[in-house]
Design a protein that fits this description.
The protein is an alpha+beta fold. The protein contains five helices and nine strands. It has one domain: NADH Oxidase (3-Layer(aba) Sandwich). The strands form two sheets. Strands 1, 2, 3, 4, 5, 6 and 9 form a seven-stranded antiparallel β-sheet that branches. The longest helix is centred in the middle third of the chain and has 31 residues. It is globular, with a radius of gyration of 18 Å. The two termini are 23 Å apart. This is Vitamin B12 dependent methionine synthase,activation region. GO terms for molecular function: methionine synthase activity.
Length: 230
């Protein structure tokens, strides 16, 4: 499934979180206004798009099937417990915003460059959430719910799975790839999987056992459409 245009509605607080500013920290209105200016600029530069492939999942959670192809993974199967299907997703906001960030740095406008880079980071995460919400809406009509999102390098899944994830999702349709060091190209891109379960997942995210209650990345629950991906 190709999603060539994903509408985004970023808020300054989302960008601030990517810069390490917590919700309870006081922030000058002038600074927030500057963040909003960078958000407006980012909207002109970004082309949020995604591609998703729906696949059958073997009972052991180690093999995925799509049409005539099968894909074997070194899989932490407990995260796909009771899932019979999964969606592999690649999301990007394009490379134009990266080029603008580089240009701002070269002009000596480091503060603006850092803000714009944070806009891109917040935007690709927001795009991923929107895609999973869309998929979740369709799957819930079948009585299915999202498991926590899982991507290469996350929860023990090796980074060298990234090329396979990109292949399974059809990432070439939105011009997303990775280099030999498993760095995403464009950089403001995400690739992950969501399993679909017949009941809401009971898996707890690591944040629920962490004592850092004021952490800016703390998560409230583990449903696929709200969980962060790194």
């Amino acid at each position: 499934m190709l999603l060539p245009h994903i509408p985004l509605d970023l808020q300054p607080q989302q960008v601030a979180a990517c810069l390490g500013v917590g919700n309870k920290q006081p922030v000058e209105p002038r600074w927030l206004a500057r963040v909003q200016e960078m958000i407006n600029l980012g909207k002109c530069l970004m082309q949020p798009a995604a591609v998703a492939a729906h696949m059958q999942l073997a009972p052991d959670g180690a093999t995925l099937y799509r049409r005539e192809a099968s894909f074997n993974l070194p899989w932490p199967g407990s995260y796909l417990e009771n899932c019979s299907t999964a969606s592999v997703v690649t999301v990007t906001v394009g490379e134009t915003i990266e080029k603008e960030v580089t240009g701002l740095f070269s002009q000596g406008l480091a503060a603006d460059a850092v803000l714009l880079d944070a806009v891109g980071t917040a935007a690709v995460e927001e795009a991923a959430r929107r895609v999973v919400r869309l998929l979740a809406g369709r799957q819930r009509s079948k009585g299915l719910f999202p498991a926590p999102r899982l991507g290469p390098g996350y929860r023990g899944l090796p980074m060298d799975c990234l090329p396979l994830f990109l292949q399974m999702s059809g990432a070439e349709q939105i011009a997303v790839a990775c280099n030999e060091y498993y760095q995403m190209q464009p950089a403001k891109s995400l690739c992950f999987m969501v399993g679909w379960c017949p009941r809401p997942t009971q898996k707890q995210v690591k944040c629920q056992s962490c004592q850092m209650t004021n952490c800016r990345m703390r998560q409230a629950n583990a449903e696929g459409e709200s969980e962060l991906v790194f």
